[in-house]
Fold this sequence. Notes:
This protein has helices at residues 17-24, 42-52, 67-80, 100-108, 130-147, 163-168, 180-191, 215-233, and strands at 4-10, 30-35, 56-60, 85-88, 113-117, 124-126, 159-162, 196-200, 202-204. It is of the alpha/beta class.
Amino acid sequence: MPDVIVCLPTYNERENLEAMLRALEPLGVRVLVIDDNSPDGTGEIADGLAAELAFVSVLHRERKEGLGPAYLAGFRRALEDGAELILEMDCDFSHDPKDVPRLIAACESGADLALGSRYVPGGGTANWGLARRIVSWGGSLYARLVLGVRVRDLTGGFKCYRRRVLETIDLEAIRSKGYAFQIEGTYRTLRKGFEVREVPIRFADRTEGVSKMSRSIFLEAVVNVPRLRLAALRGQL
Protein backbone atom coordinates (compact mmCIF):
# COMPACT_ATOMS: atom_id res chain seq x y z
CA MET A 1 0.00 0.00 0.00
CA PRO A 2 1.29 3.52 -0.74
CA ASP A 3 2.27 5.79 2.13
CA VAL A 4 -1.00 7.11 3.55
CA ILE A 5 -1.63 9.84 6.11
CA VAL A 6 -5.06 10.46 7.59
CA CYS A 7 -5.52 14.09 8.64
CA LEU A 8 -7.74 14.16 11.72
CA PRO A 9 -8.67 17.67 12.90
CA THR A 10 -9.81 17.93 16.51
CA TYR A 11 -11.42 20.54 18.69
CA ASN A 12 -12.87 19.25 21.96
CA GLU A 13 -12.90 15.60 20.89
CA ARG A 14 -11.60 13.98 24.06
CA GLU A 15 -14.52 11.52 24.08
CA ASN A 16 -13.74 10.25 20.58
CA LEU A 17 -10.03 10.57 19.89
CA GLU A 18 -8.61 7.41 21.44
CA ALA A 19 -11.41 5.21 20.10
CA MET A 20 -10.88 6.60 16.60
CA LEU A 21 -7.13 6.03 16.71
CA ARG A 22 -7.62 2.47 17.96
CA ALA A 23 -10.05 1.88 15.09
CA LEU A 24 -7.53 3.19 12.54
CA GLU A 25 -4.59 1.27 14.00
CA PRO A 26 -5.13 -2.01 12.08
CA LEU A 27 -5.39 -0.25 8.70
CA GLY A 28 -1.67 0.37 8.19
CA VAL A 29 -2.00 4.14 7.80
CA ARG A 30 -0.33 7.03 9.55
CA VAL A 31 -2.53 9.52 11.39
CA LEU A 32 -1.85 13.21 11.88
CA VAL A 33 -3.97 14.71 14.66
CA ILE A 34 -4.41 18.45 14.10
CA ASP A 35 -5.54 20.02 17.34
CA ASP A 36 -6.67 23.64 17.55
CA ASN A 37 -5.71 24.15 21.19
CA SER A 38 -8.79 22.33 22.49
CA PRO A 39 -9.75 23.61 25.96
CA ASP A 40 -10.97 20.12 26.96
CA GLY A 41 -7.44 18.67 26.83
CA THR A 42 -7.75 16.83 23.51
CA GLY A 43 -4.25 17.97 22.54
CA GLU A 44 -2.70 16.49 25.67
CA ILE A 45 -4.55 13.21 25.12
CA ALA A 46 -3.24 13.19 21.54
CA ASP A 47 0.33 13.67 22.76
CA GLY A 48 -0.02 10.76 25.17
CA LEU A 49 -1.38 8.49 22.46
CA ALA A 50 1.35 9.57 20.02
CA ALA A 51 3.96 8.54 22.59
CA GLU A 52 2.36 5.10 22.71
CA LEU A 53 1.35 4.59 19.08
CA ALA A 54 4.09 4.89 16.47
CA PHE A 55 1.67 5.62 13.61
CA VAL A 56 0.30 8.76 15.33
CA SER A 57 1.74 12.26 15.25
CA VAL A 58 0.29 15.55 16.47
CA LEU A 59 0.24 19.04 15.01
CA HIS A 60 -0.66 21.67 17.60
CA ARG A 61 -2.17 24.93 16.41
CA GLU A 62 -2.43 28.03 18.58
CA ARG A 63 -6.15 28.66 18.22
CA LYS A 64 -9.36 27.56 16.57
CA GLU A 65 -9.59 29.05 13.07
CA GLY A 66 -12.00 26.67 11.39
CA LEU A 67 -11.95 23.37 9.56
CA GLY A 68 -10.32 24.71 6.40
CA PRO A 69 -7.16 26.19 7.96
CA ALA A 70 -6.74 23.06 10.10
CA TYR A 71 -6.87 20.78 7.08
CA LEU A 72 -4.54 23.02 5.06
CA ALA A 73 -1.98 22.87 7.86
CA GLY A 74 -2.38 19.10 7.91
CA PHE A 75 -1.99 18.83 4.14
CA ARG A 76 1.26 20.79 4.23
CA ARG A 77 2.67 18.59 6.99
CA ALA A 78 1.57 15.40 5.22
CA LEU A 79 3.23 16.52 1.98
CA GLU A 80 6.42 17.38 3.86
CA ASP A 81 6.32 13.90 5.44
CA GLY A 82 6.19 12.20 2.04
CA ALA A 83 2.62 10.89 1.96
CA GLU A 84 1.38 9.67 -1.41
CA LEU A 85 -2.28 9.58 -0.35
CA ILE A 86 -3.76 12.10 2.11
CA LEU A 87 -7.16 11.60 3.70
CA GLU A 88 -9.63 13.87 5.43
CA MET A 89 -12.04 12.46 7.96
CA ASP A 90 -13.99 13.47 11.05
CA CYS A 91 -12.93 12.32 14.50
CA ASP A 92 -16.49 11.79 15.76
CA PHE A 93 -17.21 8.51 13.90
CA SER A 94 -19.58 10.20 11.46
CA HIS A 95 -17.14 8.69 8.98
CA ASP A 96 -16.65 4.97 9.47
CA PRO A 97 -12.96 4.00 9.74
CA LYS A 98 -13.83 0.74 7.94
CA ASP A 99 -14.44 2.82 4.80
CA VAL A 100 -10.86 4.18 4.73
CA PRO A 101 -9.53 1.20 2.70
CA ARG A 102 -12.31 1.70 0.15
CA LEU A 103 -11.26 5.30 -0.48
CA ILE A 104 -7.62 4.25 -0.74
CA ALA A 105 -8.56 1.51 -3.19
CA ALA A 106 -10.41 4.01 -5.39
CA CYS A 107 -7.28 6.14 -5.68
CA GLU A 108 -5.11 3.09 -6.30
CA SER A 109 -7.41 2.15 -9.17
CA GLY A 110 -7.09 5.53 -10.87
CA ALA A 111 -9.09 8.22 -9.05
CA ASP A 112 -7.25 11.42 -8.17
CA LEU A 113 -9.74 12.28 -5.44
CA ALA A 114 -11.94 9.62 -3.86
CA LEU A 115 -14.93 11.20 -2.16
CA GLY A 116 -17.07 9.38 0.37
CA SER A 117 -20.56 10.18 -0.91
CA ARG A 118 -23.94 10.08 0.81
CA TYR A 119 -25.84 10.86 -2.37
CA VAL A 120 -24.90 8.14 -4.84
CA PRO A 121 -26.52 4.68 -4.97
CA GLY A 122 -25.45 2.73 -1.90
CA GLY A 123 -24.77 5.85 0.16
CA GLY A 124 -26.94 7.43 2.81
CA THR A 125 -27.27 8.89 6.28
CA ALA A 126 -28.29 7.53 9.66
CA ASN A 127 -29.95 9.15 12.67
CA TRP A 128 -30.89 12.31 10.78
CA GLY A 129 -34.20 14.12 11.07
CA LEU A 130 -36.09 15.33 8.01
CA ALA A 131 -34.96 18.95 8.40
CA ARG A 132 -31.27 18.06 8.42
CA ARG A 133 -31.70 15.75 5.43
CA ILE A 134 -33.33 18.57 3.47
CA VAL A 135 -30.65 21.12 4.43
CA SER A 136 -27.77 18.76 3.59
CA TRP A 137 -29.19 17.46 0.33
CA GLY A 138 -30.34 20.93 -0.68
CA GLY A 139 -26.91 22.40 0.03
CA SER A 140 -25.22 19.85 -2.19
CA LEU A 141 -27.79 20.42 -4.94
CA TYR A 142 -27.34 24.19 -4.71
CA ALA A 143 -23.56 23.90 -5.02
CA ARG A 144 -23.82 21.42 -7.90
CA LEU A 145 -26.19 23.62 -9.89
CA VAL A 146 -24.30 26.88 -9.34
CA LEU A 147 -20.90 25.34 -10.08
CA GLY A 148 -22.15 23.21 -12.97
CA VAL A 149 -20.57 19.93 -11.89
CA ARG A 150 -21.87 16.37 -11.63
CA VAL A 151 -20.42 15.42 -8.24
CA ARG A 152 -23.44 14.74 -6.06
CA ASP A 153 -21.95 15.22 -2.59
CA LEU A 154 -19.97 18.43 -2.85
CA THR A 155 -20.23 19.08 0.87
CA GLY A 156 -18.79 15.67 1.78
CA GLY A 157 -15.70 15.74 4.00
CA PHE A 158 -14.50 12.11 3.85
CA LYS A 159 -11.85 12.24 1.13
CA CYS A 160 -8.66 10.70 -0.16
CA TYR A 161 -6.41 12.93 -2.28
CA ARG A 162 -3.50 11.84 -4.40
CA ARG A 163 -0.38 13.81 -3.59
CA ARG A 164 -0.22 15.34 -7.06
CA VAL A 165 -3.65 16.94 -6.59
CA LEU A 166 -2.64 18.85 -3.49
CA GLU A 167 0.62 19.85 -5.17
CA THR A 168 -1.30 21.20 -8.18
CA ILE A 169 -4.27 23.07 -6.75
CA ASP A 170 -3.36 26.37 -5.11
CA LEU A 171 -3.67 25.63 -1.40
CA GLU A 172 -2.60 29.17 -0.53
CA ALA A 173 -5.58 30.60 -2.42
CA ILE A 174 -8.17 28.65 -0.42
CA ARG A 175 -9.93 30.97 2.00
CA SER A 176 -12.94 28.89 3.09
CA LYS A 177 -12.88 28.15 6.80
CA GLY A 178 -15.98 26.01 7.45
CA TYR A 179 -17.70 23.32 5.42
CA ALA A 180 -17.38 25.51 2.31
CA PHE A 181 -13.80 24.26 2.38
CA GLN A 182 -15.06 20.87 1.24
CA ILE A 183 -16.88 22.36 -1.74
CA GLU A 184 -13.88 24.48 -2.69
CA GLY A 185 -11.38 21.62 -2.47
CA THR A 186 -13.43 19.36 -4.71
CA TYR A 187 -14.22 22.13 -7.18
CA ARG A 188 -10.59 23.18 -7.52
CA THR A 189 -9.68 19.54 -8.11
CA LEU A 190 -12.23 19.28 -10.91
CA ARG A 191 -11.11 22.57 -12.47
CA LYS A 192 -7.56 21.21 -12.78
CA GLY A 193 -8.87 18.24 -14.76
CA PHE A 194 -8.42 15.58 -12.10
CA GLU A 195 -10.78 12.63 -11.75
CA VAL A 196 -13.12 12.77 -8.75
CA ARG A 197 -14.76 9.44 -7.95
CA GLU A 198 -17.64 9.14 -5.49
CA VAL A 199 -17.54 6.11 -3.21
CA PRO A 200 -20.84 5.36 -1.41
CA ILE A 201 -20.69 5.69 2.37
CA ARG A 202 -23.13 5.71 5.25
CA PHE A 203 -22.83 8.91 7.29
CA ALA A 204 -23.96 8.73 10.92
CA ASP A 205 -24.46 11.50 13.48
CA ARG A 206 -21.92 11.74 16.28
CA THR A 207 -22.88 10.11 19.57
CA GLU A 208 -20.21 11.85 21.68
CA GLY A 209 -19.19 15.49 21.81
CA VAL A 210 -20.79 18.56 20.22
CA SER A 211 -21.31 19.38 16.55
CA LYS A 212 -19.25 22.28 15.16
CA MET A 213 -21.92 23.37 12.65
CA SER A 214 -23.13 26.96 13.07
CA ARG A 215 -25.11 29.62 11.24
CA SER A 216 -21.94 31.43 10.15
CA ILE A 217 -20.51 28.23 8.68
CA PHE A 218 -23.73 27.66 6.73
CA LEU A 219 -23.80 31.24 5.43
CA GLU A 220 -20.15 31.06 4.38
CA ALA A 221 -20.99 28.11 2.14
CA VAL A 222 -23.96 29.94 0.60
CA VAL A 223 -21.81 32.97 -0.24
CA ASN A 224 -18.67 31.14 -1.33
CA VAL A 225 -20.29 28.95 -3.96
CA PRO A 226 -21.12 31.81 -6.40
CA ARG A 227 -17.75 33.37 -5.58
CA LEU A 228 -16.05 30.20 -6.76
CA ARG A 229 -18.11 30.10 -9.92
CA LEU A 230 -17.25 33.73 -10.70
CA ALA A 231 -13.55 33.05 -10.12
CA ALA A 232 -13.73 30.11 -12.52
CA LEU A 233 -15.44 32.22 -15.21
CA ARG A 234 -12.65 34.77 -14.84
CA GLY A 235 -10.03 32.07 -15.27
CA GLN A 236 -8.77 32.43 -11.72
CA LEU A 237 -9.12 28.75 -10.71
